[in-house]
Design a protein that fits this description.
Two copies of one chain form a homodimer. Chain A is α/β, with parallel strands linked by helices. Chain A has three domains: about 30 residues, no CATH class; about 120 residues, Rossmann fold (3-Layer(aba) Sandwich); about 140 residues, Response regulator (Rossmann fold, 3-Layer(aba) Sandwich), CATH 3.40.50.2300. Chain A is built from eleven helices and twelve strands. The radius of gyration of chain A is 24 Å and the shape is elongated. The termini of chain A are far apart. Chain A binds a DNA duplex through helix 1 and helix 3.
DNA sequence: TTGAAAGCGGTACCAA
DNA sequence: TTGGTACCGCTTTCAA
């Protein structure tokens, strides 16, 4: 038994011949070591968890793919947890992760804080914060440069001639939403046309975008550019603008944030700030796995760059094919 | 120890007082039973696996949510496996599932067959086939009525006055694609205008839809209706039709299949055959869990009904707001 | 280089 | 109704 164990764990002190015999026997018997037993005996389960708010929001599957692909490469499995951004579901999952002896966690969350992660720290389970860091001191973090992205978006709208630019901001509890808003404010506050009523808060989804546009258009008859805090809101915004009879981009230009592929589906296609979604997931997974392997111990912050993707929704004056 | 175990497992033979003492102690010590140890000792891990082809295709997160919600309700966790529809990834996952002592499996796959699932049967791990059954005899199956849906789609296109209806069919290796094609053929073959060149095969994705439309329009100058085998293809088809200068629905009407929410995002919105996606996932999970609990033993087939959702892409002659 | 034996943290049977 | 104890399948000393 002990020798078989040594073979499985590639322990050096095994005679080559014995090793071969064991390997052959394992194949003949279709033997597969039980992860449970190994885990119980103190070994890693080779499983990491990924906690995301909602798998139905196309941004997250992108991240998940990045995480999963890297994990697979290093022979790790991914346990996916949908939290619905609900604190109680997150807590419940954190317990489950410990019960199931998960090796590490990548988490995207607005609700979780140090205290909640304390039990994981005690159990020596490393954590990587993805996309929405609540703390950049004690945890490794992977995120993109939200503020810069917002600045790029607004400057692009200005460059194409927009004279009054509104912002649909995500909920304040999202770090990402706050940073993007700050980026927007940083630029527009220099202009005389700027008033706080140009910022409309909404949920990070399609419906949120629709509602915000309705309010914005009602309150500010002369806006000619909108920077939406994420692509789903931009999608909703576009839909609603068309419904209100606005021409996009000639009446109102529109720029989103994220770079999800849906933005290429609409008519016109939506200009957006593209985050390296897949790469963010991959980077988070790589960091976590290296920590698990003991290859890195310090915490580190990885801020990935975003990119402006110019599409029809900000190409004023261009003739586009008719949609209907 | 034994008594604590009894309390955890709600064994009846425990004195109420003792039980209380144990519960209090567990709380004070923040005691959480190890799933691994329980699993090793022969208990269920309360975890089921869901194998899907690709989490990035919006159809699957919908299913996954259904599965997950029901699982959560019954205190089960879901281990998500992305197979990319690749046989080798599926095989590798099937092994992992056994190593990790997963209790049951819900699988959506074109590649897996009886033989591959044999080890699971041996290990007494129940399996439910979802969406794409390869066998309806020996496994419980949850799927929707694809053939009927296709018939509804074509009849709807006929009803609005289409005189020549093409079909973009998914890859033949998908049962779902075959059934929908059969539904289409069943109706159209009665008409004198029908020729096999009205069927174009393509991948079940946006790009597939685009390519198919290009070919269809080139080969059949007079088609005025298209039934796409799934919504992603319909999305691509719409995009390409607009690019080719076709008016949808007036020149060519379009109907998809699945009912994913993206079809509401386009201009015009796309008519589709809606599958009860979430319910399919939920039904599969429920069936599996009941099997695990021993509440059902026989295999059963659940065929859920689909529904025609009429939208702009088949509302000929209606004025729609301009998109650009 | 190998085998024997003591855990890992539970469950379940048996006797008390 | 409770406690003692032999596993579950593997890892890891310790001796041989």
């Amino acid at each position: 038994m002990a020798t078989v164990s040594r073979v499985i764990n590639k322990n050096e002190y095994v005679n080559k011949e014995t090793e071969q015999k064991v390997i052959v026997a394992m194949q003949e018997l279709h033997y597969e070591p039980s992860s449970l037993a190994r885990g119980l005996a103190g070994k890693k389960m080779n499983t990491i968890a990924l906690m995301i708010p909602d798998i139905s929001n196309p941004f997250f599957p992108g991240l998940a793919r990045g995480v999963e692909d890297v994990a697979q490469q290093y022979d790790f499995n991914v346990f996916l947890c949908n939290s619905d951004d609900l604190a109680y579901k997150e807590k419940s999952y954190l317990e489950i992760l410990r019960k199931k002896s998960i090796d590490g966690l990548i988490i995207i969350s607005n609700n979780v804080n140090e205290e909640e992660l304390e039990p994981l720290r005690m159990a020596n389970i490393p954590v990587v914060l993805l996309d929405r860091p609540f703390n950049e001191q004690n945890y490794s973090v992977v995120r993109s440069n939200n503020r810069n992205g917002a600045i790029m978006a607004v400057e692009h709208l200005l460059a194409i001639g927009c004279k009054k630019i509104a912002h649909i901001a995500g909920p304040e509890k999202f770090v990402t939403a706050r940073e993007r808003r700050l980026g927007y404010e940083g630029i527009v506050s220099q202009y005389s046309w700027y008033t706080p009523s140009l910022i409309e808060h909404a949920n990070f989804d399609i419906e949120g975008g629709k509602q915000a546009v309705t309010k914005l258009v009602a309150n500010n008859t002369d806006i000619d550019g909108i920077f939406a805090g994420n692509d789903l809101m931009a999608l909703g915004a576009l839909k609603q603008l068309i419904k209100l009879g606005k021409n996009v981009p000639d009446d109102i230009a529109l720029c989103g944030f994220d770079g999800i592929s849906l933005t290429e589906l609409t008519q016109p296609e939506i200009t957006t700030i593209q985050q390296p979604i897949y790469e963010m997931g991959a980077a988070a997974a790589l960091t976590l796995i290296k920590k698990l392997k003991g290859e890195i111990t310090e915490t580190k912050i990885q801020e990935l760059d975003v990119k402006l993707i110019i599409r029809g929704s900000t190409e004023k004056g261009k003739k586009l094919p008719l949609a209907t």
